[in-house]
Amino acid sequence: MKVDVDIPKCVGSGQCVLIAPEVFDQRDEDGMVVLLDEAPAAELYEAVRESAMACPAAAIHLAQA
Length: 65
Fold this sequence. Notes:
- By secondary structure, the protein is of the alpha+beta class.
- The protein has a single domain (2-63), classed as Alpha-Beta Plaits, CATH 3.30.70.20.
- Helix content is 23%, strand content 22%.
- The protein is built from 2 helices and 4 strands; from the N terminus they run E-H-E-E-H-E.
- The strands form 2 sheets. Strands 1-4 form a two-stranded antiparallel sheet. Strands 2-3 form a two-stranded antiparallel sheet.
- Strand 2 (24-26) and strand 3 form a beta hairpin.
């Protein structure tokens, strides 16, 4: 799986960080998403998919690696 985030679309809700903190973080200054791992391990796929679905701005995009 390959993860990509559209930072300009991010609204800083933090749902991705709550669901998959190994893959996502937020910038301190504005709360925008920070992608920690663009190719997470298979055991994180479910959490990453859930993060993408929970994102209110649809800023998380997933693709097959």
